Inverse folding.
């Protein structure tokens, strides 16, 4: 009887065109049917996801290539090793500004538009990279190529979360998000297979003839590889132009349905409101802690992707160590890719976001200590074993961190949330690379590895202090529960 009175009350309010004055609780239960949602799957979502995946492969191939051949590229352009580090992470610097910009206006930019921007920028970045290796004086062109690619990279970090939530049911969100990040491991794997085996430039004891041959090797391998990559990125662009869409007709989950039903459609950009929304996130405790935690844990990712070849070559200067570095990279990328995918499936099933977040960080801390001891005592076996394990543990819990963030901040605007989160994530690449390179120059490899030890430990602490209030999972269409706080916004 009470339920009938409640529905009658809301019905009269709506009939008087006063729907905006009705609390969210009543509007949700009146408008939506009292039935379980059925999601019609759309196979095209996997094709779009594959396009995003290839874009992340493209990005990581370049980052890893510059890290593996840091000294060769430095000699080719006659620049310092740190300037080559900046080429490795240069796209993340631009990605910071892209993420910040999208945190303000991102909800007005559809998924299809973001896919097209990614395709165009990746293609142009690859073409400029090929041009950069035409001459040894074209270092500036290389920087421009990384800046252009950085626009795509910023979106690639944001797009998986929005795409997974908009197109995939709740038991596939973690998997869909992980697939695009799996592309980073695939890209690193490809670089680890290609570059150590095709370049043999040894500037330290080379004659002018050998140096000229080495320079030619640098030019030929990079241009050949990225001509192929440019062709692939063009195919990705064409695919995204033809098939990408903003969202399916049927919402993929109950939480997504609630957001669609309770969000006012407004295509106009309100800068003041959108900026205030972004700033207000900094006052949200789960956002602040989990963003800081992911920021600190990125130190382990950076030391594996950017500095590991230099650290290992310094600790073990003997000839042929480049082959060992290649094997360490291969083991890290293969293991991290497989374990990250497995972790995503586990997250989707058991939904223990908090436990996986802090436990993964603590495990990464233990493995990083093993790396530090390996460098200190010059134990090659320890270095070869613990680098991949450290990387595996770190990559595996990225999905849990992001899912934990989305759960505890629901129904906050996802685009603004993910954009701001990954703006800091990208900023951490620059900060951690600079800090670890400085520590390396100051005290050698052992000093550099201390940075990710502290970062992972503090990151685990940040995840521990956030309460596991899974608001998104608790959202129901069938009258069981309400949104929990605030008005829905997406």
């Amino acid at each position: 009887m009470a339920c009938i009175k409640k529905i009658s009350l809301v019905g009269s309010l709506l009939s008087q065109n006063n729907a905006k004055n009705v609390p969210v609780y009543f509007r949700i239960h009146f408008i939506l049917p009292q039935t379980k949602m059925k999601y019609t799957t759309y196979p095209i979502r996997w094709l779009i996801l594959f396009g995003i995946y290839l874009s992340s492969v493209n990005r990581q191939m370049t980052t890893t290539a510059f890290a593996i051949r840091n000294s060769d590229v430095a000699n080719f352009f006659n620049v310092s090793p740190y300037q080559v580090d900046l080429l490795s992470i240069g796209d993340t610097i631009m990605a910071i500004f892209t993420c910040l910009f999208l945190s303000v206006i991102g909800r007005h930019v559809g998924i299809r538009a973001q896919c097209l921007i990614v395709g165009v920028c990746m293609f142009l970045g690859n073409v400029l990279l090929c041009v950069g290796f035409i001459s040894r004086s074209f270092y500036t062109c290389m920087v421009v190529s990384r800046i252009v690619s950085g626009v795509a990279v910023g979106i690639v970090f944001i797009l998986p979360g929005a795409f997974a939530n908009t197109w995939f049911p709740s038991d596939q969100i973690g998997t869909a998000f992980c697939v695009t990040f799996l592309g980073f491991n695939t890209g690193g794997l490809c670089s680890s297979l290609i570059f150590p085996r095709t370049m043999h430039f040894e500037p330290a004891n080379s004659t002018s003839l050998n140096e000229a041959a080495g320079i030619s090797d640098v030019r030929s391998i990079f241009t050949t590889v990225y001509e192929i990559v440019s062709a692939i990125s063009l195919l990705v662009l064409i695919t995204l132009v033809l098939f990408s869409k903003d969202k399916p007709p049927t919402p993929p989950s109950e939480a997504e349905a609630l957001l669609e039903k309770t969000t006012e459609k407004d295509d106009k950009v309100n800068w003041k409101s959108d900026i205030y929304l972004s700033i207000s996130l900094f006052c949200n405790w789960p956002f602040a802690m989990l963003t800081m935690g992911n920021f600190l844990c990125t130190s382990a990712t950076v030391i594996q992707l950017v500095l590991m070849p230099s650290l290992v070559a310094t600790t073990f200067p003997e000839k042929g160590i480049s082959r060992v570095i290649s094997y360490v990279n291969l083991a890290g990328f293969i293991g991290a890719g497989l374990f990250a995918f497995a972790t995503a499936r586990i997250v989707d099933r058991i939904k223990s976001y908090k436990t996986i977040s802090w436990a993964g960080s603590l495990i990464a801390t233990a493995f990083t200590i093993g790396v530090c001891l390996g460098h200190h005592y010059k134990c090659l076996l320890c270095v070869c074993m613990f680098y991949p394990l450290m990387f595996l543990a770190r990559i595996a819990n990225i999905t849990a961190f992001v899912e934990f963030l989305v759960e505890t901040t629901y129904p906050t605007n996802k685009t603004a949330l993910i954009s701001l989160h990954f703006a800091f994530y990208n900023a951490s690449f620059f900060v951690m690379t600079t800090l670890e390179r400085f520590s390396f120059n100051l005290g050698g490899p052992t000093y550099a590895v201390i940075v990710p030890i502290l970062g992972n430990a503090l990151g685990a602490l940040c995840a521990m202090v956030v309460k596991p209030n899974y608001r998104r999972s608790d959202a129901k269409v069938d009258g069981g529960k309400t949104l929990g706080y605030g008005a829905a916004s997406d």
